[in-house]
Amino acid sequence: MTFFWYDWAGYIGVLLVLLAYFLLQAHKLHGNRLAYQLMNILGAIGVMLSLLFGSFNWSAFLMQVAWLLIGIYGVARSMQKRREVQGRLP
């Protein structure tokens, strides 16, 4: 069996998403923290790369696009809240 770079990107992406979810459930990560969001974003990108360059599947691709957008939303929301808190500090 031959593994290409996009296969590895997909496996690493799946590992990142599953690890992020496990760490969230184990209370080692918080869902509103940057590390959790980045693990999900990078995981989704890895799976999307494997789908784009390997065997394409629309339903899996659309799920990863949604996962990516939700992760980006989480990062943007966290940054906005951080700016609001900093704006209130004397």
Write the layout of secondary structure elements.
Blueprint: H1 5-25, H2 34-53, H3 58-88
Helix pairs in contact: 1-2, 2-3
Task: Note down, in words, how this protein is organized.
- It is a single chain.
- The chain is mainly alpha-helical and 90 residues long.
- It has one domain (17-85).
- It has three helices and no strands.
- The protein has helices spanning 5-25, 34-53, 58-88.
- Helix 1 (5-25) runs antiparallel to helix 2 (34-53) and helix 2 (34-53) runs antiparallel to helix 3 (58-88).
| Helix fraction by DSSP (H/I, runs of at least 4) | over 70%
Distance between the first and last residues' Cα: 61 Å
**Radius of gyration (Å):** 16 Å
Number of strands: 0
Helix and strand content put the structural class at mainly alpha
Q: Could you list the spans in which at least 5 consecutive residues all have pLDDT below 50?
A: none
Q: List the helices and strands in order.
A: HHH
Shape: elongated
Tally of structural domains: 1
Number of distinct helices: 3
* Biggest sheet overview: none
Compute the average pLDDT.
94
Strand content: under 5%
